[in-house]
Each structure stands twice: as structure tokens, then as C-alpha cells.
Amino acid sequence: MKTEDKSFDFDLMAPAPQTEPERQYYFMAKLREKIFALEAIQKQPPTYFLETFGCQMNEKQSEVVAGILDEVGFVRTDSEEKADVVLFNTCTVRENANMKVYGRLGLIKHHKKSHPSKRIVLFGCMMQEQEEAERIRTQYPFVDLVFGTHNNYQFAELYYKMLERDAQLIEIWQEPRGIVEELPSERNYSFKAGVNIMYGCNNFCSYCIVPYVRGRERSREPAAILREVEKLSAEGVTEVMLLGQNVNSYGKTLPQKVSFAELMREVEKVEGIHRLRFMTSHPKDLSDELIAYLAESRKCCHHLHLPVQSGSSRVLKDMNRHYDKEQYLELVRKIREAVPDISLTSDIMVGYPGETEEDFQETMDVVRKAQYDTAFTFIYSRRAGTPAAKREDQIPEAVVQDRFDRLLALVQEVGRERSSRFTGTVQEVLVETESKEKGIFTGRTQYNLLAHFPASAQMLGKYVRVRLSECKGFYYLGELAE
Ligand code: SAH
Ligand code: SF4
Ligand code: F3S
Fold this sequence. Notes:
Number of strands: 21
Largest sheet: 6 strands, parallel
CATH class of the largest domain: Alpha Beta
Mean pLDDT: 95
Oligomer: single chain
Bound molecules: S-adenosyl-L-homocysteine, iron/sulfur cluster, FE3-S4 cluster
CATH topology of the largest domain: Rossmann fold
């Protein structure tokens, strides 16, 4: 699904404009000339392979990079081996995200030997770490272009510069320099979309690298967000997910204070928007106003992702989370009282430095009491530069693995039980994809639960009523209901 915001008529012999996004459209026009020339020689358009690691923030930035590549004449391919350009949008939240990228680079180096004009581009959070960019410079000279999270919008300009100089180009900014919007964007779905409402994070949880690679928290102006949602709606989007690392603190940095609940109320008024979602909520900032909004809104989905991280008040204090076990459970109680059918999900970590078996049992207790529909479970990963990484009481791997296995088993047991509560009911489902099995489609309820059911291709992107007949753990088998 393509969004094209602007078209400009440029004198390409003149110097590049200094204002954004005009400057980037100028470089897109320059790139388009080069790509057309290449296409004439190759007798087919050049191709690109783009893979995104990490969270929805990265997904959004990849949409812009893909939008620009499409705009200048590349065609997307799912063959990493054959593609003329391979791009990885990297994540560094846990060590294994980094390992994956390095593993893949080894393979691509090999592909490049038989395809020397192949270009390799790395960007995103991992590149924002100085040591990683340095490692690419010294050990991976076959990587052509590297940029970070703050200058993602400059992709057209950087790619052009890299082609011109024909040597590795690494350009990373330590700080963000303003928000540039209205660039082309290639979305995965025509009917649902994510919208950034803020960037960065100010929380500095002691284990987390995100504030270092994404910079300080910045909220977008409500008018800019509403303009984007209106445009998406005009293009056929009916489900919008508002995105930020801590959406509950939205608006605090704006000259004219706006609360997150106030923003949601405005967004849901946009004509054509049928469902509203949001991610992620930090428990310390979840307001009564937002709970009241969730209870009364007819459009906001009854799904709340409320990461707890740990159930131990002692560990939570050390993590700098600003809530304890009791406060978290009280919040859960209040939400369930106001919105009884809420689907509650979480992120949980084991093996934080100094975590004892007692601390871990507190986490298990929260899982039982909070009754999550589902939760992402993680093994603590030591991230260089974060306060927790400096601690000497890191937990031995075998102990962590054992806790992880026990946690996962409990999360699955509670989740299966919770998810099965809809058996036999009829729910509204947004039809999203056709499954591998022809004629069987997959959709999502407002609770974020998947359902598979027989339907037809005309129903893609539509809301249909589905009887959820059989719960298979975390998804349902069902059939269309009258
Ligand atoms: N802003 C969101 C989380 C973004 S990162 C929030 O605060 O809820 C997504 C998840 O990754 C976190 O919730 C946490 O559970 C996990 N995570 C972050 N840093 C981690 C680390 N060093 N090791 C393991 N998991 C981590
Ligand atoms: Fe990381 Fe904490 Fe910010 Fe979430 S709120 S991104 S866990 S620092
Ligand atoms: Fe990863 Fe960056 Fe998101 S580190 S989780 S992609 S903000």
C-alpha cells in the first residue's frame, strides 16, 4: 500500500534545497535518473530486499525507506541472494538481535562475491551504538551504507551520496535534529496502520538501551497526528495503532499540554476510523483518565499491553520502573473493574542481576494474579552502557534458563485458560490475510486474538462476525456468523 505525499518539479542541475522534506524529494529525483539508466542497461528494474528487526518503531522507519526505494524505481523482492540492494533495519534491545545481523552479514558477503554491484545497507538502533558502527567500519568493509535512527529520513540523500563516492558511507547523528514527515511510505496493509505519536524515551529503565539509541522523548503535535490519520482514512485505513515507547506520557513535552486520553478522543472522531489501538503503556503513567476513556470509548479496542517486567518490588525499584508489585496489581484491579472484558498482556523478564528465587516467585505470583491473556517473556540481556550491565551479580545462565522455562510454562497455562473464555461467542473480526490453506482467512478480534475461518478474498480488510468455535490455545478456529 503506497502513500505518496508530494511531487516536486526540480531543476536537478541546481543545488539541493536546504529545507525538508524538499531536499529529500530532490535526491529522490536524482536517484530516479540513475535507476532509470540502470534499468535501461539491465532491461529490468533493480530489486531490493529489506528486513526489519525489532519493534514497531523500526517497522515505521522501514516503511519510509521502502517508500523511497519504490518511489525511485526499485522493485521489492524476497530473494536476499539475488537482490541488487539488501537492507537490514537493526535492533539492539537484546544481544540475540545483534547476533542475527552479524550472522546474516557473513552470508551476504558470500553473495556479494558473485554479484559485486550488490549494495548492502544497515540502519536502525544497533547502528546508533558507536562500537557497532565502528565494528562495521573496521571489519565489514563490504557494507556500503550505514545510518542511524535520527537521520532515517535522509535515506535518499545518503544513498545518492554513497553511489556518487562509490565507497563505504557511515553517517550517524548523536542527537535528533527535528522531525521530518511527509515522505513516501510503503505500508504492509491497506486497511490498518501504525502512527507514531512520540519518539524516544526518557525512562532509563536500568536494563534498557532504547533511550540511548532513540534519544529523548518527543511528542508529535496533535494536529500533525490528526492530519496523518485523516490521510490514512482517506486511503482506506480503518484500524489505527498509536505508537510510542510510553504513550501514557504523551504530550508532556508539548508547548500546549495534551493528555494521551485527549488525543485518543480526537483521533477516534476521524471519519472512517473504526478501531483504535495503542502501544506501549508504562504502568507508572497509566492515568484514571485513560482507564475511563477505555471504558467509554466505542472504538478503542479492549486490549492493554502493560509490561510488568518483574513481580518483585525490590527488583522493580532497582530497574527504575517507579512502581511496586502492589501498585501494579492495584492498577490491574482498577482496569478490570472499569473494563471487565479487557485483554491484558505484558512483557516479563527473568535473570535481572541479583534476582533471587524469591524475587522470581513474586513474578510468578503476578502472572497468576494479573491473569494475562498472553505475555512476551525475555531472558535479561546485558546491554553495554546501561546501569544494570555494570553490576557484578549477573545470574548464571543455567539458573536463568530454568526460571525462563518455568515462567513460560505458567504464562502459557494462564494464557490458554484466559483465551478460551470466548469459546462459542460471536466476535467482530477484521479479516487480515489469507492463510497458506486456500479459502481459510485469518483475522483479529479487538482483543488481539487471532481467528482462522473459511471466507472469501472480497472480505479482506472488512469487519465480519465470526463464531469462535474452537480454542487452540492462542488462536481460534471459527466460521462466519449471520
Ligand atoms: N517501552 C516499552 C518496551 C520496549 S522494549 C516498555 O517500557 O514497556 C520491549 C521489551 O523488551 C521490554 O518491555 C522488556 O521486557 C524487554 N527488554 C528491554 N531491554 C531488555 C534487556 N536488556 N534484556 C531483556 N529484555 C529486555
Ligand atoms: Fe526501555 Fe523502559 Fe523506555 Fe521501555 S520505558 S523503552 S523498557 S527505558
Ligand atoms: Fe529494538 Fe530499537 Fe525497537 S532497539 S525494540 S528496534 S526501539
